[in-house]
Amino acid sequence: MNPLKIDTTYIKNFISQSEIKAYSGKFKSVHTMVYNKTGVGSNFLGWVSLPQVFDKKIIKRINDDVKTLSREIEVFVVIGIGGSYLGARAVIDALNNPFIHYNTTIKKQPPLIIYAGHNLSQDYLTNLLALLDKKEYALAVISKSGTTTEPAVAFRLLKAHLINKYGIAKAKERIIAITDKDKGALKNFADKEGYKTYIIPDDIGGRYSVLTPVGLLPIAMAGFDINLLLKGAQEMAEYIASNNNIHQNPAALYAIVRNILFKKGKTIEILAAYNPSMSYFIEWWKQLYGESEGKDNKGIFPAGVNYTSDLHSMGQYIQEGSRHIFETTIDIEKPNQTLTLPYDIEDNDGLNYIAGKNIEHINKMAALGTKLAHVEGGVPNISISIEKLDEFCLGQLIYFFEIACAFSGYLLGVNPFDQPGVEAYKKNMFALLGKPGFEKETERLRKQYN
Q1: Residue 161 annotated in active site
Q2: What is the pLDDT of residue 103?
Q3: Which of 56, 155, 266, 386 is most buried, taking the most CB atoms under 10 A from its CB?
Q4: 332 with 389: CB under 8 angstroms?
Q5: Could you confirm whether 374 is annotated as catalytic?
Q6: Known catalytic membership, residue 426
């Protein structure tokens, strides 16, 4: 039985079953478009069948490289931006004990994963280099082209640092390039220098790439089981592919419900979790849906919150602000740890009424109370639940959101696999920096804003 569940109990006041049923024929067409690759952007659907057909030799190679390299290093730097790092970070942060690197009783632990190339902050990069002066480290640079500004800047800095620290020969042993199979600046440079390389498939875009070496190598380096991650994704892929019944297919139901809510004026979707470890999973989801649907002046704006902390910041707006929002919550049924609130004879904080209760029970009651309050305040709520926070369930959740995004984009009437709008800021940035070939843009900006 598929352990991922979708609960639409808290949308009944906003959407009728007849409205959902009306999408049945349209969804069957979308289901066919995805699996027969007949829709727009279908040349970027390689991820759809990837979990079932992933090359076991690549998995073995990743695990072997990780085993060899992790013996020598304390820190592993992942250089990438957007989909080139968010998927890996989502999984690593979700599974990691955030305090493990403060635990001095553990003699050998996986390398600390640090990220670069996702910003252009001089302070961030300077502080990173200062840390790496004192640490044994290696890096993975992730880019199809090798010319995206943020990761290219970070790679140039860190490559020079590696060479200064270890020498040219040793430095190249500590660099792994994850890039295009046969073209691009990074591919050409990696071949010239003799770096270890992994391929980003041509038919998989960055935001759908977490289940390729883009995500798998860093996740394995962090000490997690990528075979189990892929197994979870595989089971979800098989379950969804075999079922075009909208009531039995959780990805279909999610895609349909959010499109109906959008047509009713609910233009912002807030993804919420009640576990702080899910913060970067929410960031990954925001990119996935924002880049996939935000085009042609359409799309649901993806936002995110971490409860219960954000109930004390964003909670007021969600409860009583403009009614153009709906919520999707990620619920984790079973915690990995057990902790009980103790009894206090003084009871100065007034908490003895829940003394002896499991903290997770308290958290779940906070979640239920929040859902009920928000629904009563006019905010529909969709619940996505997984059994527990482990590699298998995260693999399922990743694939669920990816395939639901493809369905939802097609239902919305956009190409879910391109992102033409992200080039606009680059043209201006290149012009302002004086990049060769952008002279006309430089002149246009000068005339327009001076």
Answers
A1: no
A2: 72
A3: 155
A4: yes
A5: no
A6: yes
